[in-house]
């Protein structure tokens, strides 16, 4: 590790980027050192450092401070990736030795992905490492605990020898995905302090078939492996680097989707640079209102925005419902003023723009989703999907605020507004006049 840090120091800011690029992706696991958020911050710092170096002595001091911050971030990223790489390589080396003793053609290690807590009850397993070219596809497969052989071994703690017989078994379906033929498996539960922490699988004995003597030997030989796997899965950072984060607490929130009707038509009448400025002006106006009502900007979707009310300080249900309704009314009025200004300034096509706001509420879960290298924290649940549908189903010929039935039912009698029902192909939504 010290050699790695020394390498960074000797390269300098530009060389460090080269050093990061040279760190190999672990062959036994999908470890990605660079995170989108960290990389964006680093890119920004590099640009700022370059500008400051060209100015006064004071700025050069600031440049050095920025450089130190940049170097610290690079070092942290490399250290995290290197340590995880070392852990997985040791796990892979140990199971490879056991597989050789058992005369197994291939092997794999599966770990629980639903939680990084050893005492939790996961619902599926994922592959931490595996031998052979099939690993490239195996690493994206989740193995359900309640319907798979590996899951049964993990749950019961009993070593099992099996040969897939029915084409509907999970093993046979997996074989089709990875283009492999499983003739026989020996599966051993990896246990640490009486807790199941993973499963070691050995496939297709080269000389004959696995038997009870092999199972006993595998259990004995896998004891040290179980300790290494336990260390790995108990480290939240390690599991998050692999793309598996623990499920967060469920929350009751209000979801709001905001969208502009007819925005795409602007590209036929206005220069793209001006459209970008108008779009950012609109985002600034709408997001400022949302933030003033304790909303979280979850994501931008083209000319749309997804807001979440009720995160952060654990607001009471009626509180975040009220905040969302007030914000929606202010957004509608603010956009009308913004649109009036655009039309006055002569931006052709802006007179046909309308803002649509769709709201719903309900219980959601926080989750990290997306490609392993670019995962982002968001909320998922039916209320999010419903709010999105309400927004898309809302009228396109006027500025409008629409609610779902769930939102309307959740409002107490004093807050319940007068609304106009609108029938859609999926459900009835309610428009606030």
UniProtKB/TrEMBL annotation:
Domain of life: Bacteria
Keyword Coiled coil listed: yes
Pfam families recorded: Guanylate_cyc
Coiled coil: 35-73
GO biological process: cyclic nucleotide biosynthetic process; intracellular signal transduction
Segments crossing the lipid bilayer: 12-33
UniProt-recorded name of the protein: Guanylate cyclase domain-containing protein
